[in-house]
Design goal:
Largest sheet: 8 strands, antiparallel
Helix content: 10-25%
CATH topology: Thiol Ester Dehydrase, Chain A
Radius of gyration: 15 Å
Number of domains: 1
Shape: globular
CATH architecture: Roll
Distance between the termini: 16 Å
Number of helices: 1
Strand content: 35-45%
CATH superfamily: Hotdog Thioesterase
CATH class: Alpha Beta
Strand order of the largest sheet: 1-2-3-4-6-7-8-5
Number of strands: 8
Oligomer: single chain
Structural class: mainly beta
């Protein structure tokens, strides 16, 4: 896939073989607030986007703040689309995102958004997934991404 967005970071992560680094090269963009992220496609076709929660992602209960979790889920929608060659980085947008918070996310271990594409149409991509942390389910989600205009 040719990268049409030179400001986008999607390259092998030398610290994590088999994973791709994920994000923007410009640290002043919103995604930089979410910290480092890596992504890989699983053998079954699901896409696993891994985030590394830190104190700035916490709420007053010392768990992951729901807003940070929603940010990572939104990024996971796009990581899933790109990993399947459906879109490039750029002007695609989230049309909807439904999330069910199931358990508290902890700051002491990586957080995985594991997504699958349910269907694609000419303009839309329908995705669902789970947020996992170790053996625990933190949230479930479904979302729709509108592809960029050609």
């Amino acid at each position: 896939m040719t990268d049409l967005s030179p400001g986008f970071l999607h390259e092998p992560d030398p610290a994590n073989p088999g994973w791709m680094r994920w994000g923007f090269k410009d640290p002043t963009r919103f995604n930089a607030l979410l910290g480092d992220m890596i992504v890989r496609t699983e053998p079954d076709g699901r896409v696993r986007m891994r985030a590394f929660p830190q104190r700035q992602h916490s709420n007053l209960g010392d768990n992951i703040h729901g807003g940070a979790l929603l940010g990572w889920i939104d990024v996971a929608l796009f990581a899933t689309c790109r990993s399947h060659g459906i879109i490039e980085a750029g002007t695609a947008v989230t049309l909807d995102l439904a999330t069910q918070f199931i358990g508290a996310g902890r700051l002491d271990q990586p957080l995985d958004c594991v997504s699958e594409v349910l269907r694609t149409t000419r303009r839309l991509v329908f995705i669902r997934g789970l947020v996992e942390q170790g053996d625990a389910i933190v949230a479930s989600y479904s979302g729709t991404v509108r592809k960029p205009s050609s």
